[in-house]
Amino acid sequence: MNEAGLVLIICGPTGSGKSNAGLILAEKIGGEIIPADAFQFYRGLDLGTAKPTVLERNKIPHHLIDCLSPEENANAHWYAEKVRLLVPEIIRRKKVPILVGGSGLYLRAVLDGFFEVPEPAAVLEARKQLLGVGPEELFSRLQRVDPEAAARIHPNDTYRLGRALEVYLGTGKPISTFRRQDMRFAYPFRLFGIYRNREELYLRIERRVEEIFRAGFPAEVKALRERYDFSLPAFEAIGYREAAAYLSGEISLPDVKKIIKQKTRNYAKRQMTWFRKEKRIQWLNFSGRP
Q1: Is the pTM for the entire model greater than 0.70?
Q2: The CATH number of domain 7-115+184-191 is 3.40.50.300
Q3: Where are the domains of the chain?
């Protein structure tokens, strides 16, 4: 039962064990899991993203997993909109929404709001239209389409004038309408962080990389490469382009594992730097636990 409408959030660096903690908690309290991972939404990216298994998903309801093709593009605004629709649905079923993942930006978008950003192609097109336009003309154009934003920006601040016009040209909506919206999360929440000491975390990362290769990661990458262009943003997930280079004979198997381990350790370090700045997190020390 979830009469209070409470939302639980479990975050932490990759390899810390947050996914397993989320599964155990969901089973105990009647929860449904919403991943907060930037790449688990993409179909076919399974082993490299540590996606929950089919068995785990059959046991505990999961949302948003495999909802996008690698040719589509997820971002923090898209994620926040999806989560803010899912949370009340889960609460109406008397279940507990549990957000689990390591994407600090996505979690912040849910909790604090994240106004819509134009697609990259729309930004490039807008910049072409504004190329060479002076501050006086930028200010005049912004006054016509978004007088509220123009009143807040100095007439000579070309960066902010240009950004406001990019948002308008890219979305068709004035940037001021996004800023007027109440972005605060409407539900009570508890934010927990999973901590492990560095040596243990790095050892877990190394084991995970070895495990995904034993489970057939190169075959997963081969199948994806036969269907998709690996320059797509989905394949920025650590391991995919590296494994593709291995399949092409550019690097050896020991070297590709070494590279993926190092990149994953670096990513975990960046995640911890992000999460340490989040004062709302209640840290749970999992050092020494399975």
Answers
A1: yes
A2: yes
A3: 7-115+184-191, 120-180, 198-272
- CA–CA separation, 67 and 141 (whole Å): 39
Which of these CATH numbers, 3.30.450.20, 1.10.287.890, 1.25.40.10, 1.10.3720.10, describes 198-272?
1.10.287.890
User: So what CATH class is 120-180?
Assistant: mainly alpha
Residue 278 φ then ψ, to 5°: -90, 105
- What does each C-alpha distance from 218 to 21, 48, 52, 212, 254 come to in angstroms? 28, 10, 19, 9, 13
Within 10 Å of residue 8's Cβ, how many Cβ atoms? Answer: 20
pLDDT digits (tens, 9 = 90+) for 16-30: 999 999 999 999 999
pLDDT digit string, tens, across residues 152-187: 888 988 878 888 888 888 888 887 776 555 567 889
CA distances to 113, 148, 149 from 181, rounded to whole Å, are 9, 14, 14
Here the tokens at position 174 are 């004035």
Neighbouring C-beta atoms of residue 136, cutoff 10 Å: 11
On whether the CB atoms of residues 96 and 32 are closer than 8 A, the answer is: yes
Listing from the earlier edge strand, what are the strands of the sheet with 7-11?
Answer: 31-35, 96-101, 7-11, 189-195, 282-285
**Dihedral sign (CA 52, 57, 59, 62):** positive
Of 82, 93, 95, 87, the C-alpha closest to 38 is 82
Does residue 131 register a pLDDT over 80? yes
Q: Encoding tokens for residue 49? A: 């993203």
99 forms beta bridges with 9, 34
pLDDT at 118 (0 to 100): 62
d(CA 91, CA 121): 37
